[in-house]
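Hi R.,

As promised, here are both runs. First protein below:
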Amino acid sequence: MPRFSIIVTVHDVAGRLPTTLDPVLGQSFTDFELIVACPDPDAPAGALVAEYAERDSRLVPVTGGREAGLRAATGTYVLLLDAGDVLTPGSLAGIDARLREPGAEAEAGIDVLRLGHERVPWWEGEPVAELFEDRDPADVRLPVWATVLRRAFLRDHGLTFPGGPYVDLGQSGLVALAAGTTAVLRTVCVRRPERRRVGGGPAAGARTERPAPELLDQVGLVLDRAAAQGLPEDRARALFTQLFAEVLDLAAGAPRSRAFLRRAGRLHRRYRPAGHRAATVRERLLRRGAYTAFRTLPGLARLTARARAYAGRSALRRRRALTYAWYLRRPLDENLAVFAAYWGRGYACNPAAIHRKARELAPHIRSVFLVKEKELPHMPDDVESVVIGSRRYWEVMARAKYTFNNVNFEHAVVKRPGTVHVQTHHGTPLKRMGVDQIEYRAVAAATGSFGRLMRRVDRWDCSLSSNAHSTEVWSGAYPSAFTHLEYGYPRNDRFYTAAPGEVAAIRERLGIPEDRVALLYAPTYRDYPRDVSAQFDLARFCAELGDEFVVLLRAHYFLDGDAGLRQAVADGRLIDVTSLRDTEDVCLASDALITDYSSIMFDYANLDRPIVTYADDWDVYRDTRGVYFDLLAAPPGHVARTQDELIQVLTSGRWADERSAALRSAFRARFCEFDDGQAAERVVRRVLLGRPEEELPARIPLRERLPVPAAAVARPRTPAR
């Protein structure tokens, strides 16, 4: 029998499991079993757990939640963690020593050991440690994840820790009421990165519907048990105060229903101990069930602030606000969907791909695309377009049931109840995103207010992912209560579905000679000063490649005023494709990709064509911009650190050798996980048609996918590696 059973519960696919599992497996004290409870063993998190179990026999995977983990436990003591919690170095040895202190191992030994712990704020600020010097260790609000429990004690009292919102509060209360012996360890043993709260209630990660009656269920459960036990008055008052502090916090944090407040008032009146006095106006209103007054109290301050802000607006902004407010009072149009991409810069990316599929599969949905006025001439004739900022724009934004965007809508847009917003994103993240940028000062300064950013993120209902890496990054970079749609990127569908002859037609339109290998060169943006022409001589690069190649340039800043590049264009060695609106066309027309750190590499890998990474300033980019993984340790193909190396890789033929193919195969397995040509259909059927997950197109295994072949590479169309 192991000394400890450490049970880790995985709540979603983005569980950040290595953050929790690695510190546990690295403990100096080794007499433990590590039980990982995962609801879906077929999800990416389940696959990761299986990998860990193969490497370390102490890890035991179980299917289900915390209850399933407890049933599988065999240790003397249990420690209940959630994925993301961090067990500090040496903590297990310290816990064992505390439990073995004189008298602790006697027959009436320690049932509950409260651990010092630390909460790490979700995006800024110093960690907050709780060492029981300013808090009663009998407080029922103390976290389950920082408590060691004797397994026999849990069994004898029927404590099972089922899943569900606010269950930890109820179980902590029952533990406090049942515990014979409670001790504390005043050392930080567990660190928890706090998950962001959205509108009160549980931490972000699982969207819950108001009015959160589960909290009142747990409060009633604990107070019933306390009444049956006949607690002393001082302890009953403390318990009551602790529980209703949680109720008041939730009720004030977000609008609650009349039924919620009235039920909370009944609980308050029924269980209020003798001598308890309401400490605040809010508590007195809750006790009376005064719903209107309770809701109005904080609203008065907000109305005053809004009135002052409105008075300070320009006449134009006031008219816009009044127009929008009027449209917001009209009913939703259940058959209206709004699409936008890149802040209105045209018909592009994932929103455009979903828009096309929606017209095919959901013709009853009226689809409107939002663009800037200067983009109207470039819009397809059969696409209904609305100019951003116009009166019509505010009408469709107010009334649309569905909205799709690959960036965020402006701050003034209101998320109405009943609407569905899908954040499609526009790439797989290599560089740091969202709140993960905070520690990188230059990038954080350009981003602006992270509070405003997160208020925009709170409007998301769904977030698209093309791989498990993206799912995990979006969960941490944008901590809010949205659902992950692991369907692939709709814009990448064309890499599998383009019609025969389409590649040749695009190449002809671009002027690519039939006998040339087309190299797409697509560098990324830098957040720091960089003399591009001095660091990479593109004119020389084109000249030294020879007549075998033609370069497709997707970057405008190289051409401005550069006589050498103008000559390269004139000689047919370089074609500027920067102004083309469909990146997918350029990718299909090319035979290989040269890029640095651009997310285009993840999309291009779907084509299973060679990729060369030009990483002359990787160290600066990594340290200045921040990255999620070491690209040079797992690149999609050969890496060149200088221009001479890049030319040598291409002219020697190494760009398309077996080593290149092997690197690309591993890269595709990791980052092309969900892209199989059916992403747009999955989104339309799930979001616009309301089909359940089991009715969506099944994912095609990577080895069976057939990407569109390149024009200049003489090979039959065979299943992808």
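And here is the second one, sequence first, then its structure tokens:
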Amino acid sequence: MATFLYKLGRLSFRRRHVIALIWVALLTLAGVGAAGAPAAGNSSFSIPGTEAQKAFDLLEQRFPGTSADGATARVVFKAPSGEKMTDPGNKATVRETVKELSDGSEVARVTDPYQAKAVSKDGTIAYAQVSYKVSGMELDDASKDALEDSAQDAREAGLTVEIGGDALQAVPHTGSSEIIGIAVAAVVLVITFGSLVAAGLPLLTALIGVGIGVSGITALASALDLGSTTSTLAMMIGLAVGIDYALFIVSRYRAELAEGREREEAAGRAVGTAGSAVVFAGLTVVIALVGLSVVNIPMLTKMGVAAAATVAIAVLIALTMIPALLGYAGRKVRPAGEKSRLFGRARAQDAPAKPNLGSRWASFVVRRPVAVLLLGVVGLGAAAVPAASLELGLPDDGSQPTSTTQRRAYDLLSEGFGPGFNGPLMVVVDAKGSDDPKAAFTAVGDEIKGLKDVVTVTPPAPNKAGDTATITVVPASKPSSVTTEDLVHGIRDAGTEVRADTGANVLVTGSTAMNIDVSQKLNDALVPYLVLVVGLAFLLLIVVFRSILVPLKAALGFLLSVMAALGAVVAVFQWGWLSGLMGVEQTGPVMSMMPIFMVGVVFGLAMDYEVFLVTRMREAYVHGEKPAQAVVTGFRHGARVVSAAAVIMIAVFAGFIGSSESMVKMIGFGLAIAVFFDAFVVRMAIVPAVLALLGRKAWWLPGWLDRALPNVDVEGEGLRAASGDDDGDRQLVRV
């Protein structure tokens, strides 16, 4: 592989005009496609195989034309202080609003609060339910404007009016903090390279790669039903890995120049060595992201595949466009150790090199490996303690900022009708196999009324055929509570008894039941996913490092960092620690897909640092250095760059904490803290400590396995042999 990538690097350097033209053409093509495509909305959400999804599909079949998947809005009215919604003036205002809402071409129906008995007991709050013929993603802006205008007219008449539901869901924005993250990355690159030109190359290529990836996602959003969150997460991960991969190749290029090589040769060797690490690091990230498909939740699968495609683009750009741009930059990119005139002159080439910070830190760890190992493990273990209290759920309007109308509508409905009113359960009774459907409907309703935590049970509403009915159940507790989850399970258990007596099948659906089923499905898939992703990456790392213990240590270190990161997420988003600093206005359960998403993404990113840092150690070891000295050598060459890469990745991820979307905010924080733990505690402390303790055993590989594995030559041994640089001191590590 190193030889192929070496040739690719030299070709890209020589044919830089062609390479640059190809990538600019791809960016232009993707941009044109994105400009002409419909705007991304909120993708449809389905969970194949769950009871809630089966009930939803049954509703569409047995209740045709009801637009079961259509957008909904709850327009909530509150009377001025001292008045009631039943007062004639307020009543007239509400009915006028209902009339206005009914005029829309996409409106299926609007309920009158006074006919539907949708007025609170104290008479101060009422709501009108608006159902649309199309989903929230397909809803025209004109319909949304009409909804807001009707509410504004009622406000001008003296009422407090807020709108809940999915009809007004907006595309999330990240705010200025995303730009701050990129600015921090730029500063770190300038400090690392001491050159504005060298620092600009990773930023430029990362932005081009993300531009192609996100534009492609936008162009395909309507056709593939990709939500706005998909492009946001692809941007988050694409920026981080794009900058890092380019950073490693530019850094290796400068090191090759410092050894006196010509620029084209240095570019080829940089791509052949650091580029090999980029390929395998990118493969681990792609495996982790594509592996999300095993969960069998289409939305999560699409997010993973889209982000994986963006990572693949970042790898290809790093391997081709970076050497092309290095050709354009010429002498403006200086050898390692030299700085541009703006940052001061370099030391003389014949001056002795002083041990850098990475070397000094590695020497310290090698001398005291047990103390460093214990401190790192105990520290991460303490950070992971809150993860034992992890509660999972999906965000609803109650997790929105209090500045949004959706959140204020949620609070008004809780005030007027109880917290459970925001998460009603829909019970679907399929009596097609029952001898007496009406008796079955009544039996189900009576059974549910006898359960705890039930406030309201509506009479069964049968379809035209009379073989299926819906029953709405309002819990006493809020949608995300454990009590409501217990009620859902209680209704399903009661349905099993009813089926035995009447032959009717009872299914529970609705947004609350759907969230519960998602959480359960994700929990069930976590272990198989972990086995698949870690297993595949473990095999990949055995090929890269030609060792058993090094990949095993990498996987165990990852588990430590991801558990510590989950503990931090629980502490902030569930317990409320530092919630004000993070902009978390409402604490609650952690998003259901957070653990499995963090496992996938963090594992891929963690292996990046493992590959980049440890390959330099192995490179030194196979060329004759003792194990302890190889650790120090690896840190001398790689610690500064890996640290810079980690800071950049943390800055990029942290930039998304400013998002208005709670899911994006949580993922941004979780990934940022996970990278911090993994890069600076696991890879910079625990890894060298373990390698120092293992000594030569760290690089042990059974002879039969060594012979069976393909030689991918990540260290670029073939390049040295071909150029005569190999002095024959390579040490064969076989047991």
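A quick note on the second one: Confidence is low (pLDDT under 50) at residues 346-352, 726-735. Let me know what you think.

Best,
J.
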